[in-house]
């Protein structure tokens, strides 16, 4: 192998190591028996997992995160899917404006959206007394991800298929239920997966909008990390990684991720 | 089955489909953003969100006070550094991923995407374990009887962690652009006697410029707005505009925070516009 090619392949390999390094370190730290990760590791232990599952604050945070992600996913799917149908099949004038409008939550800096929502909540008297505002914030940032995935799958679907069904006498509602919906289902499910992950991992929106006395799992980890080092957070992080991985694998089994566009 | 009878039902259906997103984004994006713009012109107060009356003092202060200007400069400087490092690091990997015929291609693609599936907090946590004063790297240095290095609570740690966080956003557009380049163009240039370096500089790089541009814009904008990683890896010792704005919210200086946040957002947009303008020129120059 020529030295130039060797250098090129080494740099490529280094990028993959760099990408996986911090994530693997967190997983390793969660199984480490000592409080601090030492080199070489001190031994294998599940005590941080035991502590994580026994901790009421962490369990409450996990529960809120899961419910929040589930609700946001459902709402974002119900909002984003019709928007994609409108954009691909119906929009004529203002088509690009509509796309930018729908993608705005993704294009605008999340921290700014978070601040803007916080100010508005206080001014209309909602404040952060309830978790309702947190739900709204999560829903709106999830919508663009569903929109993008469903739009992509609609572009792959030839209108001729729908026209054929129409010409054979099916009503528009039947065409949608029997033809369009099954064919764009992979896009909808991939979009929902994205929405779930975005909501489940979000910190920036939750940071300012979480209700008084409630917190999500990433926020709980964030708060722990700011003040003290506690390996329970490594266990919490690993559980969260496994849940995401589980969702991805479930979707892969269901529809296959090949259809996914980023 | 002519088009005409279908027309009257088409418009309301379209409106019905668009309505949910129009309402959601309208209420949760448009209204709050209009509100934050108004807020940025209000008179600040330390005891409540804002005092009566309007002023441009919030902007005047932010744009004349050397403290805020320095902060803005630091934020943009860090974002430029992160973008440049991402580009240099991502390019070989993106090129490899776009051109490889290895059966591991799918796995490598998943590896590039996988960090996106892990939250920013967890990824920053991994860097804390590695870079802390008592972290893994410094322990190893001590074991080798080398002096410990300050890797965290400074710009180095923040930049390193942010490069990691945003790297996939650079690899993906680059890969897309490189995949769009016909490999025969490279072969033709090679067969006409161009060196590999020359092929890269004169063929691959200019043709991949659209990918370079969208990757850079994405990473730059994301870096300007990053809060979580600077807050964790900088731990109060690295100040960016975002960390300063959040501090202001805690101090109830909302109008001032609003002005600062909007200046940051527009600085990001202006920088993106300048970059698009500038790189459009170089693109034509190179091609």
Essential attributes:
heterodimer; A: 262 residues; mainly alpha; MetI-like fold; 11 helices; globular; B: 287 residues; two-stranded antiparallel ribbon; 2 strands; disordered N terminus
CATH hierarchy, class of chain A: Mainly Alpha
Count the domains of chain A.
1
- Tell me, rounded to a whole number, the average pLDDT of chain A: 88
How is the CATH topology of chain B named? MetI-like fold
Terminal CA distance of chain A reads 35 Å
Element-level helix/strand string of chain B: HEEHHHHHHHHHHHH
What proportion of the residues of chain B is helical, as a percent range?
Answer: over 70%
Write a structural description.
The complex is a heterodimer of chains A (262) and B (287). Chain A has helices spanning 3-30, 47-54, 56-90, 95-107, 110-123, 132-156, 159-167, 172-201, 204-209, 217-227, 232-254. With 262 residues, chain A is mainly α. Chain A has one domain: Orthogonal Bundle (MetI-like fold). In chain A, helix 1 packs across helix 11. Chain A is globular and about 70 Å long. The relative contact order of chain A is 0.14. Chain B is mainly α and 287 residues long. Chain B has one domain: MetI-like (MetI-like fold). In chain B, 77% of the residues lie in helices and 2% in strands. Chain B has helices at residues 7-39, 57-64, 66-99, 105-117, 120-131, 136-143, 155-179, 183-191, 196-207, 209-224, 228-234, 241-250, 254-286; strands at residues 42-43, 51-54. Chain B has a two-stranded antiparallel sheet with strand order 1-2. Chain B is globular, with a radius of gyration of 24 Å. The N and C termini of chain B lie far apart (52 Å). Residues 1-10 of chain B have low confidence and may be disordered. At the A-B interface, helix 1, helix 3, helix 4, helix 5 and helix 6 of A face helix 1, helix 3, helix 4, helix 5 and helix 6 of B.
């Amino acid at each position: 192998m020529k030295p130039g090619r060797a250098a090129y392949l080494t740099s490529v390999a280094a990028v993959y190591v760099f990408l996986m390094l911090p994530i693997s370190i967190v997983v390793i730290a969660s199984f480490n028996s000592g409080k601090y990760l030492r080199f070489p590791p001190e031994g294998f232990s599940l005590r941080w997992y035991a502590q994580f599952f026994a901790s009421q604050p962490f369990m409450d945070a996990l529960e809120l995160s899961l419910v929040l992600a589930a609700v946001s996913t459902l709402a974002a799917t119900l909002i984003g899917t019709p928007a994609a149908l409108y954009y691909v099949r119906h929009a004529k004038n203002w088509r690009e404006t509509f796309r930018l409008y729908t993608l705005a939550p993704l294009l605008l800096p999340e921290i700014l959206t978070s601040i803007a929502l916080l100010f508005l909540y206080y001014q209309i008297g909602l404040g952060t007394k309830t978790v309702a505002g947190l739900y709204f914030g999560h829903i709106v940032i999830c919508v663009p991800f569903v929109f993008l995935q469903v739009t992509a799958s609609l572009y792959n679907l030839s209108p001729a298929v729908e026209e054929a069904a129409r010409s054979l006498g099916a009503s528009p509602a039947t065409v949608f239920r029997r033809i369009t919906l099954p064919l764009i289902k992979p896009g909808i499910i991939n979009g929902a997966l994205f929405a779930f992950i975005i909501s489940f991992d979000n910190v920036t929106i939750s940071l300012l909008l979480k209700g008084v006395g409630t917190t999500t799992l990433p926020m709980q980890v964030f708060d722990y990390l700011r003040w003290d080092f506690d390996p329970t957070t490594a266990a919490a992080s690993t559980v969260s990684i496994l849940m995401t991985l589980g969702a991805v694998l479930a979707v892969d089994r269901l529809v296959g991720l090949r259809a996914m566009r980023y | 089955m002519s088009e005409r009878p279908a027309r009257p039902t088409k418009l309301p259906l379209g409106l019905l489909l668009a309505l949910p997103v129009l309402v959601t984004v309208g209420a949760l994006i448009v209204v709050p953003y209009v509100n934050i713009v108004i807020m940025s012109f209000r008179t600040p107060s330390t005891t409540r969100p804002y005092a009566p009356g309007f002023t441009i003092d919030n902007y005047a202060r932010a744009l004349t006070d050397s403290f805020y200007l320095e902060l803005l400069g630091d934020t943009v400087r860090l974002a430029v550094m992160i973008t440049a490092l991402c580009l240099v690091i991502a390019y070989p990997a993106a090129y490899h991923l776009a051109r490889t015929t290895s059966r591991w291609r799918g796995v490598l693609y998943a590896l590039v995407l996988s960090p996106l599936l892990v939250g920013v907090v967890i990824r920053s946590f991994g860097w804390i374990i590695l870079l802390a004063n008592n972290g893994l790297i410094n322990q190893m240095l001590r074991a080798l009887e080398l002096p410990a290095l300050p890797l965290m609570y400074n710009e180095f740690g923040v930049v390193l962690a942010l490069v990691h966080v945003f790297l996939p956003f650079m690899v993906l557009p680059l890969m897309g652009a490189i995949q769009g380049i016909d490999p025969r163009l490279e072969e033709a240039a090679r067969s006409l006697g161009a060196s590999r370096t020359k092929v890269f500089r004169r063929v691959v790089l200019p043709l991949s410029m659209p990918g370079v541009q969208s990757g850079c814009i994405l990473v730059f904008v994301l870096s300007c707005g990053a809060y979580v990683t600077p807050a964790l890896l900088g731990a109060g010792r690295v100040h960016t505009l975002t960390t300063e704005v959040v501090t202001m919210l805690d101090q109830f200086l909302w109008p001032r925070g609003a002005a600062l946040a909007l200046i940051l957002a527009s600085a990001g947009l202006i920088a993106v516009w300048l970059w698009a303008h500038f790189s459009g020129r170089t693109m034509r120059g190179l091609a």
